[in-house]
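Handout, section B. The chain below has 505 residues.
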Amino acid sequence: MIEYFNPTGIDTYQNIIQTDGQLIHALNVYQPGVGVLAKRPGNIAFLNNPDSAQVQNLFAFGDQNGTTLNLYRASGSLLYYSAQGTANWTICGNGTINNLNHVGHTILNNTMIIGDGAGSTRHTTNPGTSFTNTTNAPVAQYFTQYHQRVYASDGTSSVLTYSSYGSADNWNIAVPADSSSFVVPDEGAIGPSFVAGDRLNITKTRGKMYIWDETSLIDTTTKFGPTVPWSIGNIDENWYYVNQMGIFQTDGATRTVLSNAIQNQFYNSQGLGASDQQFIKNGYGYGDAHKWDYFVSVGTLTDSFVGRQINNAIIKYDYQKNTFVNWAFPTLPTAIHSYIDTNYQKQLIWGDVNGNVYQLSPTATSDNGVPIPSEAVFLFTYASQYNTFSPTSAQTIFGSSYEKKWNWLRLFFQPGNEVNIQYAFSNGMNYQHLKWSEAINTRTQGAPNNYWQVSDGVVEIRFPTNDPNFQPRSRFLFLRIYDDSDSSQWVYRGAQIDAEIQDIK
C-alpha cells in the first residue's frame, strides 16, 4: 500500500513515469494549503454594465489616507469611474478615448496620469473624476513612476520621455523644469516598463529589455522580454510576464522561465498550445497578480500530453508552492486587476468582451449563477520499491513499468463533499484511448455490488474483478475527480492505493 498525500500542480514536462501520482490535468482547482487540492471559488457580478463594450482596462486610484478610492474602467471609447469602488460606473469628465484602445496609467505624488497612445495624455488628482489634458506631455500609452518622475512611451516608437522631477503633470524642458527624453536602441518599439531591483526595466515589442538607473542605459542581452504588454504583474519584488515561450519571472537582475512544467500548454509538437494558436496576435494575455497568485488569460489551449482542450483558459501560477493549474471562466477576461479596497481587503476584478465586470468571491460556488466545471486527473504508476529477498539474493523492483493487480483505492476529502470519481486501467499513456469506469457520485450512499462506500470524507473503492472486459490489471492507473456544480465546493487531501506488482519473467 502506498500513500499519496501531497497533490501538487500540473507537470507534463518531466517524464511522467518518473513521477508517481502526478497531476496531469487540473481545471478550476487551486491549492489552499500544501498537499491540498480544492475547487476554486466563484465570481459574482460587479457593478453595472454601462455600455456592453469590451473592457480594455481596470485600475484603481486611492487617496493618501486610504479613505477615498476610485475604480476606473476603459471600455469601448469611454473611461468610467466608480466612487469608492461601490457606486455604478459613471463617465469621467474628459473621458473619451479611442475606441478599444488600452489605457495606461501611473501615480506620482497624488496625481494620476493616463493615456491611450492616440489621444491627449491626461491627469487627475485626489483621486478625481474628471481629467485635464497634460500640457507638453507626449502622446503615450505606457507610464511608470520611477525616482520621482513619470516615464512615458507610446508603444510605437523607441523614444522614452520623462517628466520633470517630482511632478506627473509638468513636462516642460525649460529650467527650472527638467523634462527630457532619450532613445532606447535596437529592434522593436518601447512597450511597458516597471521598477524592479531599484532600476527602471524597459521592454521592447520584439522581446528586448534594457535597464535604466538615471545615468546609464544597460542592454540586458535578452530577447525573452514581455511581448504581451498587458500581462505584467508583480508579487512583492518579483515581476511576471508572458511571451511566446512561456511565463517568466524577474527581480530586475535575473530572469527565469517558470512555466517548464506546462510547456506543452504554450507550444507543442501538435501545434495546439496557446502560442501555437497565436494568442498574442489575437490580443489575449491579460494578467495581474493577486495575493500569492499570478493569473494570465490565454484563450484556447490544449496540452498535447492529455489532449484536453480548454476554452477561455487562464493559467494560474501559485508563487508560494511554485505550481500551475488552469482556470476557465464563462467568458475570457480582457482585463484583470487586483487592488486594495477601502476596507483594506485585497480584491480581484476582471472584465470581458461584453462589458461585464466580475469579482472573485471566496464564498461563491458559481460564476454569477453559471455552474463551475472542476476536474483533477492523476496518473499513478505505483512506483514505490517492492522488495523481495531470498537466502541467496536480494533485489529491488521498481513498479513503474510493471503490470499491477490493482486492489483498492482510498480517497480523502473534506467531510460532506460531493464529487464524481472515475478510474481507468491502461498499459499505455494515450489519454484519449482510456476506458473509464462508470462515474461514482459520493452523494449517493451505496452502489450496485456495494464495493465502495463513503464515510466522513473517506471514499473507498474496491476494484471489481468480475468484468472480463475491465480487469484491474495494468501498468498505469488513471484517476479522475470532477464536478459541474453551482452549489458546492470540494477539498481533496490525498489517496491510498493497494496493488500487487506482477513480476513476469
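Note. The two ends are 23 Å apart (CA to CA). Compare this with the example in section A.
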